Amino acid sequence: MGKRSRWLLWMVVAVGVVGVVATGSNGGAGEGEGKGKVLEPVVTRIAFGSCANQSAPQPIWNAIIDFDPQVFIWLGDNVYGDTKRPFKLFGKERTFGPWKNAPRFIPSSPKELESRYLKAKSNPGYSRLRHTTQVIGTWDDHDYGLNDAGKEFGGKITNQKLLLDFLDEPQDSPRRKQEGVYTSYMFGPVGRQIKVILLDTRYHRDPLRSDGSVLGSSQWTWLEKELNGPKSAITIIGSSVQVISNLSATTRPLFSLESWGRFPKERNRLFKLIADTKREGVFFISGDVHFGEISRYDCATGYPLYDVTASGLTQAVEKAVPHVFSLIVRFVAWLTPTTMRVISKNCRFRSCTYGQPNFGAIEIDWSTAPVTLKLEVKDIVGYPVTGVKFSLVELQSRGSVPSVKAGEHRRHCSLEVNLRWMIKYRLAILFYCSVSALLLAMIGLAYAATLAFRLFLHKCKLD
């Protein structure tokens, strides 16, 4: 055999070995381990999003495709599978008010939910993305089956299969045998690996206001194993609800949002687990709330923890109100007290939240020394509305966790729930003062009108 023939033979063998490594590393490393495929080449762009109503126009896919991500991550409410009933103050079925006697949301049948998934999957923009990008994901309440639902929801077993079908999960995947859709993936070659951990915050979650469990014992055991597993340069933890921000502490009693902050023991356990496993390069991505923002917490693991919230692809708070009220929504967002939100002059609005359709974008520049990350929320045409850029070394432990003394408040360290009550409840105070002023003004006008009418009658009698 000549030198050229031997060279060609070695090339064929080498290509075969690479092919085996690329396709055979899907790891059945344990319960919840997903496709786990090590991708080549290096992953530099990841997009993510949530809250996509299958019946609404979805032009945002064009911007996501233009971003050219190698991976797209669904963070829940991938479809709206439950049915929202109209507001009814009176009648036999009242869905609003203190005399409410009927649920506002009701679950759909499995057949109806399946048809909604098929409609979402056939969207032209999303179909184009699926042909060029690896799509992975988890769920939130509306695709889980019912608004704000947790472990008590009876349709979760059937709906788990429907979600995994939507995500094209292999029929022999461990995700189809476990309780919950949590999973993990490893992307990229050694030294430039990105681990993506997707949590299930629905299947095992205890009721709101219980301060019980979010993940359940089996998922906690799995998560500890994942964080103690092989190291990666970057670890992205996907949660359908916000991890860092806890705006409900400052918006109640007017309204509340779901978040890990509603389960403080569980959130502390999550932070402690990251610190105890000495996992570096960790940040969160989340959805659910129908606006985009970036939060940061410096007092948990010895390095800043970021949470990039992208919500939603179609559903957004400013779309839920008439356009003329958009400025009021932005004013309320700016006025809402927050200790965790990243505030920057580069934000589209002063509040550094964005209430129009949006998606999240992660860019990693592996060519720089040190490696740099750019985390952004982008609008419907792909322009950034808020973002942060930093070197990967900033997500390495500095040995000690900063602390805050009692009565002190430090940005990105003091939780919203610990704010002084005058600050924490200023939205409610402003609202109730405004309502009171309006009622007093109406009473005053009514009294003035009554006096004027009496004077008019008296004058008529004199005449």
From TrEMBL:
It comes from the Eukaryota. Keywords: Membrane, Signal, Transmembrane, Transmembrane helix. Residues 176-300 form the PhoD-like phosphatase metallophosphatase domain. Residues 1-23 form the signal peptide. Coiled coil: none annotated. The chain crosses the membrane at residues 429-457. InterPro entries: PhoD-like_MPP. This is PhoD-like phosphatase metallophosphatase domain-containing protein. It comes from Populus tomentosa (Chinese white poplar). The lineage of its organism: Eukaryota, Viridiplantae, Streptophyta, Embryophyta, Tracheophyta.
